[in-house]
Amino acid sequence: MIEQSAAAVERPRLWAARAGVAERGVWTRHLRRVWWMPATLLGTTRWPATSGQRWFVWWNYWWQAHLLDCVVDAQLRRPTVQRVATVRALTRGVRLRNITSWTNRYYDDIAWLGLALHRAGKVAGVDRPRALAEIARRLRRGWTDAGGGGIWWRRRDDFKNVPANGPAAILFVRLAADGPPVGDPDDLARARAIAEWIEEHLVDPRTGLVWDGLRVNRDGTIRDVEKTIYTYCQGVLLGAYVELADATGDPTWTRRAMRTIDAVARHLTSQHGVLRGHGGGDGGLFTGILTRYLAQAALRLYSAPEARHLAADLVLFSAEGAWRNRAGGPGGPLFGPDWSMPACLPDEPRPHRARGGSVRTVAPAEQDLSVQLSGWMALEAAALLERGGLTVRRAPGSL
Q1: Residues pairing with 143 in the sheet
Q2: Distance CA 357, CA 342 (A)
């Protein structure tokens, strides 16, 4: 159980220091050259890594996009020449391991990489205009009218979901602001259309949370709605609303952002205000992504001060939970997949009850790069709020 106080969360420059040691932990345990090639880096998917993971037989494209995003966060926190070199090495690593291409068949994967590459250019000066142009073209072609609109989850599939459409909308707004040659004059309209499509088809009118996605028949009609609730779906939709509010000045987007923040606080937190986790694997990244876009909302929703402070509280209480429940690992802290519970070391397997009632032990999710990136992301989000002067306004149980 987390015991936290506003005073503990608000110590000056505390979060920058914590984010720095989280960064060092990921560096020590996960970063490796790709096939021993100089000036390349990627993150091994697990720690300790198997030989196949060290050789990047398995590499998880979209996890690498978030690793790049975290390094960009760190560069924003404390700029160094070494981090710029790391950003360059990671972008080279992605292209090399992806067999000299920037894209794959998953629209959500390439949208995540597009966001990370765009930020790498803005923050670290590592520009990849050809990569961004290739990603943007693919995302633009991913929209169809089937299912009422939206971008597919992957090519030649029947699923359209928020994890593909939310990041694409955020990227389209940012590209529209950049303009040519990569940005297209219609990108802002594309972002609006995506957000309206999600609003119409996937927002739960009862809770205000957004569902995962929908299945589409061959004739374009909707067959089924996947109503699973994931934290990162809330994060990317919130991110799209905040970007659109800034770009258009339309208060509709601010109201929708406020509704989303309130829904997250009501339905996706523990009694201590800590955001819900989703285990290891891909799910290990979900809650960290939500903290990223909650922090953006806290800094940018100037016309909604209560929503801003609620978003900040969600980030800061969650980051405090992740930190207080960390374990000690080589080079730095080891975070757990659920920030309201103590983290485990790799030699402390967890019991797992199978459907038939048998109990077996499973490797802890703490071994996954995704889980460690999520914890690091939360601390960087808290450090960003610290730099912006935002501190806790509520007691943990009052969210």
Answers
A1: 151
A2: 25
> Cβ distance 366 to 348 under 8 Å?
no
Name residues whose C-beta falls within 8 Å of residue 82's C-beta, 6 or more positions apart in sequence.
Answer: none
Q: What are the structure tokens assigned to 192, written together?
A: 């609006």
For residue 106, which amino acid is it?
Y
* Distance (Å, whole) CA 306 – CA 308: 5
CA 79 to chain centre: 22
pLDDT digits over 23-55, tens only? 999 999 999 999 999 999 999 999 999 999 999
Six token digits for residue 234:
């809330």
Transcribe 26-49 into DSSP letters: HHHHHEE-STT-TT--EE-SBSSP
Q: Residue 69 and residue 390: Cα distance in Å, rounded?
A: 22
Do the Cβ atoms of 23 and 372 come closer than 8 Å? no
Residue pair 256/239 in contact (Cβ under 8 Å)? The answer is: no
User: In what helix (H) or strand (E) does residue 344 lie, and over which residues does it extend?
Assistant: none
Helices 129-142, 162-178: axis angle to 10 degrees equals: 130
Note the pLDDT of residue 361: 57
Find the mean pLDDT for residues 350-354: 56
Beta strands in the chain (DSSP E): 31-32, 42-43, 159-161, 213-216, 222-226, 327-329, 332-334, 350-353, 359-362
pLDDT range class, residue 100, cuts 50, 70, 90: confident
Helices and strands of the chain, counted as H and E runs: 14, 9
